[in-house]
Structure prediction request, 214 residues.
Amino acid sequence: MHAYQKEFIQLALSHQVLKFGQFTLKSGRNSPYFFNMGLFNRGQSLSLLGEYYLQTIQHARIDFTQLFGPAYKGIPLVSSVAIAYARLAATDLPYSFNRKEAKAHGEGGLIVGAPLSGRVLIIDDVMTAGTAVREAIQWVADAGAQLAGIVVALDRQEKGLGSLSAVQEIQQHYQVPVESIINLENLIDYMREDKQFSQTVLSDLLLYREQYGV
Prediction:
């Protein structure tokens, strides 16, 4: 595991973004952990998030020319990544995001920011069913741009409707890289090393992975 991945987990724990217990997901599954990116709600944590996304993208060596963030959680995330590139990589990238509803006055339309063009990298939080990402992919295609890949904060690495995860389905269907700052395996490895976690919490997570993991 890279240092930035451990730092990201520590940041998530300190902001209670990552919690352990019993949580019912939209899928109806009873999960022993929950990840809520909305609790990264301070300037410092958002700045660090941009850096962790940047390091993930650089490590994966994704070739792209523009950033896009699906509404709503993708909006501050894509902004933070663009700022991180300008500040740390001396790269002034265009970025954009979408509205949930088209604006009928002013500039109008669904897309805010730079027009979608070139090789577009989508930035999002946690991919569950992949619905928001698939919508973003369609906007990229409709604009005549090319999908370069997708980067999320957490890959839960669990089955969707079939035997594949949402991440694997996107990778297989669109033939693009889908990367994450961390995945479930990284989290389990971190918990095995850190003695603050009880054996019960770790066991629950391992059982969940055995039942729903890919």
Q: What stands out?
A: The chain has one domain: 3-212.
